[in-house]
Amino acid sequence: MPRITGGSLGSRKLRSPKGTNVRPTPGRVKESLFSILMSRLDGAAVLDLFAGTGAIGFEAASRGAARVVAVEGQLAGLQEETSNALLASLELREPDTRIHSARLAAYANCLAKVVNYPESLLPLLRDACIFHDIGKLELPADLLNYPGVLPASPLEALRCHTWIGERILNNITFLRPAARLVRHHHERWDGSGYPDKLAGENIPLGSRILSIVDTLDAITNDRPYRPAQSFPEAVLEIAKWTRRQ
Description:
Layout: E1 3-4, E2 14-15, E3 21-22, H1 26-40, H2 43-49, H3 58-91, H4 97-114, H5 122-130, H6 141-144, H7 152-158, H8 161-170, H9 179-183, H10 205-219, H11 231-240
Antiparallel strand pairs: 1-2, 2-3
Helix pairs in contact: 4-5, 4-10, 10-11
């Protein structure tokens, strides 16, 4: 049986039993690889694993892998299009939504590292930041653009955006893991938040991070009822409400 000698696979030579070097053909390379596998693994298992008689179906496997990569690329493209469509719809009602959400995602990423938030959950936290206000899609536009501090009754209506956002994200497979964080990003440490009045560590850590960065961004940007404050002022304000909000 010929054997493979040194060099890269594309340039390796097969040495015949008499020592004569010959240029390997694709068929000989496959036969040699197949013989190595058969000598090191269970023969029946190898035959079950690879198609064909006496040669491995590398071409078929390669084509299959290429199809998988193509499908994954298409899915990623569809996810991006879905995300952009949702944000564009919300942006028609709140023009600063996209940049506000992007700032939250950046702040949250920094804060997550400080509190040792699991790295594997960072994409989930990012999605929660990007879509934390998506529930406002179902609220009246005049409620979203109210020029001042909302009275009690409209404020209660506005608070519905948390559980509405959860419902929307639960219907989108790739965003579903972020739905719970979105629902609870207005809970407060003392239990006075909404919608479920969760308290302390019963509030998901991702929701607590989101709540802090949302507050930070709100304080450091202009509102109809007050001008923006500096970052140091915002930090002091957030620290003042520790263990309450």
